[in-house]
Q: What sequence folds into this?
C-alpha cells in the first residue's frame, strides 16, 4: 500500500480503503439499478405484448381462431365441457355439432316400357326429392296419346317432346324410345341433371336427340323463343305436388311459345287439386285417377272425337 499511498499524496491508508469500498458499492448499486431498469422495461414490453395478443385472440371478438386454438396458444388446460360451452356461446350449436352433408344415392327401379330402349333400367334418386311418374301411369299416357292420334298420325312417326320437371327423364326417354325424334328436359337441380338425367340419356343412347335445361320450369316458360324455336308436339308436366300452384303453372304454360294449336299436354296432379278445364287453345280431353294421382290430358278440339 506504500506505493499506492505515494501515488496519492495526502491520502491516508484508511481513507483510501474507505474510498475504494465506496466506489465499489457505488458501482454495484449502479449495476443493480441498470439491471432492474432493463428488467422493468422487459416486463413492460411483455405486458404490452400480452395485452396486444388478447386484443387479437379475444374469444368474443376474434373469429379468426377457434376456442380450442386460443386455449392451445395460452398453454392451459380447460375442461372439455367448458370448451364446448365457449364454442356454443361464440358460434352457436353448429360449431360443436358439425353440419352433416347428406349423401345422395341412386337406385334402378324404373324401366323403359316399350320401344328402342325397352326394358332398360333407369337411375332414380333414392329419396323423396324426386317422384317419377308411376310405370302404370306412364304406360297409360302413351296408350291414350296413340289412341287420340289414330287416323291422324302415329306416335312413332316422330315429333318433339318437352319434359317439364323432368327429374329422372323417364317420360321424355319413354317418348324417344317410342319414336319421337327430339326431346327437351327441364330440371332445376344440377346434381340430378348431371348424375341422374344425363346419365340415363347416355345409358339409353338418346343424348344426341336431347337437350337438357338446368333451370326452373317457370323461368323456362317465361323466356322468349330463340331463333327457329317452335311449339312442341307433346308436353309432360310432372311437378312435385306440394311445390307448385297448378292454376298459376297452367296459366304460364298457356301463354308460352312452347304451346301450339295441336300440342298435347299431359299433367300429373294430386287428387285434392282442382285443375283448370282449358289450357290456352287446348281443351281437356281426358281425366283419370290412379290412386292419389290424377292424370289430365289436354289437346286440340279434334282429339276429343277420337
A:
Amino acid at each position: 500500500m506504500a506505493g499506492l499511498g505515494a501515488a496519492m499524496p495526502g491520502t491516508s491508508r484508511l481513507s483510501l480503503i474507505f474510498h475504494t469500498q465506496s466506489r465499489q458499492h457505488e458501482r454495484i448499486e449502479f449495476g443493480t439499478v441498470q439491471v432492474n431498469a432493463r428488467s422493468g422495461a422487459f416486463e413492460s414490453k411483455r405486458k404490452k405484448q400480452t395485452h396486444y395478443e388478447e386484443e387479437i385472440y379475444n374469444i368474443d371478438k376474434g373469429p379468426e381462431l377457434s376456442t380450442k386454438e386460443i386455449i392451445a396458444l395460452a398453454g392451459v388446460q380447460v375442461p372439455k365441457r367448458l370448451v364446448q360451452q365457449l364454442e356454443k356461446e361464440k358460434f352457436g350449436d353448429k360449431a360443436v355439432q358439425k353440419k352433416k352433408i347428406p349423401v345422395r344415392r341412386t337406385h334402378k327401379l324404373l324401366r323403359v316400357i316399350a320401344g328402342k330402349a325397352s326394358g332398360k333400367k333407369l337411375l332414380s334418386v333414392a329419396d323423396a326429392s324426386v317422384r317419377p311418374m308411376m310405370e302404370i301411369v306412364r304406360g297409360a299416357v302413351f296408350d291414350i296419346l296413340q289412341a287420340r292420334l289414330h287416323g291422324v298420325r302415329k306416335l312413332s312417326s316422330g315429333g318433339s317432346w318437352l319434359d317439364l320437371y323432368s327429374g329422372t327423364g323417364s317420360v321424355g326417354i319413354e317418348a324417344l324410345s317410342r319414336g319421337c325424334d327430339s326431346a327437351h328436359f327441364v330440371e332445376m337441380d344440377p346434381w340430378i341433371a348431371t348424375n341422374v338425367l344425363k346419365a340415363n340419356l347416355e345409358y339409353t343412347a338418346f343424348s344426341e336427340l336431347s337437350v337438357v335445361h338446368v333451370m326452373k320450369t317457370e323461368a323456362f316458360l317465361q323466356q322468349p323463343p330463340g331463333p327457329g324455336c317452335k311449339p312442341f308436339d307433346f308436353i309432360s308436366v310432372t311437378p312435385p305436388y306440394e311445390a307448385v300452384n297448378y292454376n298459376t303453372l297452367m296459366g304460364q304454360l298457356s301463354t308460352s311459345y312452347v304451346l301450339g294449336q295441336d300440342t298435347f299436354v299431359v299433367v300429373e296432379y294430386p287428387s285434392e287439386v282442382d285443375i283448370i278445364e282449358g289450357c290456352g287453345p287446348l281443351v281437356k280431353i281426358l281425366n283419370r285417377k290412379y290412386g292419389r294421382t290424377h292424370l289430365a290430358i289436354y289437346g286440340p278440339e279434334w282429339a276429343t272425337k277420337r
In short: The two ends are 143 Å apart (CA to CA). The chain has two domains: 14-96, 106-305.
